[in-house]
From TrEMBL:
It comes from Dentiscutata erythropus. Pfam families: Cytidylate_kin. The lineage of its organism: Eukaryota, Fungi, Fungi incertae sedis, Mucoromycota, Glomeromycotina. InterPro entries: Cytidylate_kinase_dom (IPR011994), P-loop_NTPase (IPR027417). GO terms for biological process: nucleobase-containing compound metabolic process. It comes from the Eukaryota. Its EC number is 2.7.4.25. This is (d)CMP kinase.
């Protein structure tokens, strides 16, 4: 069976994660939520670097990636945090995601990971900046009332 990459975008709480995980499970593809990388940046900033400069965090993140610090390793670190730390690093990651250099580095890393095909990738910048050549692109929408209820 020929494998492809699937990119999913949409506004917050539009169902990207639910749909992406479902598709990945049915196709036996690897699921990647780009948010995990931003949370990892928040983790580096909040836990390890005591909120040092964005560029120090960027350098450490880049060095980790060069050492083949895989998506699975990053996911394990983030998923093992307690609820309070998870929330705090999420907020910090959101702040750091505003830095274009960080976004470019994360986008480049995800492109490298998905080069082998067989991935469902959801999140910010996926269709236009991370996987513009994805064989399948899905944009989800949900009305505001539905999103608020979720």
């Amino acid at each position: 069976m020929i494998q492809i990459n699937i990119a999913i975008n949409g506004p917050t709480v539009s169902g990207k994660t639910t749909v992406g995980k479902f598709i990945a499970e049915k196709l036996q593809y690897q699921f990647i939520n780009t948010r995990i990388f931003y949370r990892y940046l928040g983790y580096l900033s909040y836990q390890q670097l005591n909120n040092t400069s964005v560029y120090n965090i960027l350098e450490i993140f880049n060095n980790n990636l060069k050492l083949n610090y895989s998506f699975n390793n990053i996911t394990k670190i983030i998923n093992n945090l307690n609820e309070e730390d998870y929330y705090l690093i999420g907020r910090q990651g959101s702040k750091l995601s505003e830095n274009q250099d960080m976004r470019q580095l994360i986008n480049q890393h995800i492109r490298q990971i998905t080069n082998g095909k067989g991935f469902v990738v959801i999140g910010r910048d996926v269709i236009f900046n991370i996987l513009p050549d994805a064989e399948v692109k899905i944009v989800l929408f949900a009305n505001l009332d539905t999103r608020v209820l979720r």
